[in-house]
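COMPLEX REQUEST
Ligand: 6-O-phosphono-beta-D-glucopyranose
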Amino acid sequence: MRTSACIFDLDGVIVDTAKYHFLAWKRLADQLKIPFTERENERLKGVSRMASLEIILELGGKSVDERLKEEYAILKNKWYIDFISRMTPEEILPGSVEFIKELKANGIKTALGSASKNTPMIINRLGIGYLFDAVADGNIVKNAKPDPEVFITAAHLVGIAPGRCTVFEDAAAGVEAALNAGMLCVGIGSEEVLFKAHAVVSGLDEMSISRLKEIEKNI
Ligand code: BG6
Ligand code: MG
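STATUS: Structure written out below.
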């Protein structure tokens, strides 16, 4: 097999937190009277907290000083944490645990590659730390997706060359990041948004080692 390590984005791939990011940003956008729907939210997926805020302010044609930006980001994160601190293991997306266990049983390394600074809290809340050999997240990475840094860091942490890593991503910016890292990329979600990925599936419940081998054959 080409793949020796699988790197998973967290929000929207392993756990259904993408909706909470949206709801928290929506609350801020409403307060600032900036029109913001699921459509615009697509641009925020995979993007760091500050970069997301900048997109929202740009949508509203607002320019604010750094101090106010900090305040807005803190507020959004507080609302987001209110949601994730109540999360239960039922919010782990279907098929994730089974697929990751299958990979590990077959000697394939597994890692998380997420922009989120809240990654440790989510891992602990859901008790999923044992599934990953390494975690690269927003706390150790400087450059946001589509920069490949988070995936290159994850590959380095598990000791596998980027060319032998496969990334699972639900965000267009994340697909770009994986391609920029020279990795195989499987999109999780809709073909329309993730068309640059090597293959797109609706969720990890569609994945297995045999499916991964098929995808590798077709690239
Ligand atoms: C990504 C999400 O995983 O993490 C983005 O897709 C989010 O929506 C980013 O902005 C940063 O997350 P956090 O938890 O550090 O604000
Ligand atoms: Mg995501």
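REMARKS: Strands lie at 5-8, 109-113, 134-136, 165-169, 184-188, 199-201. Residues 84 and 122 are 7 Å apart (CA to CA).
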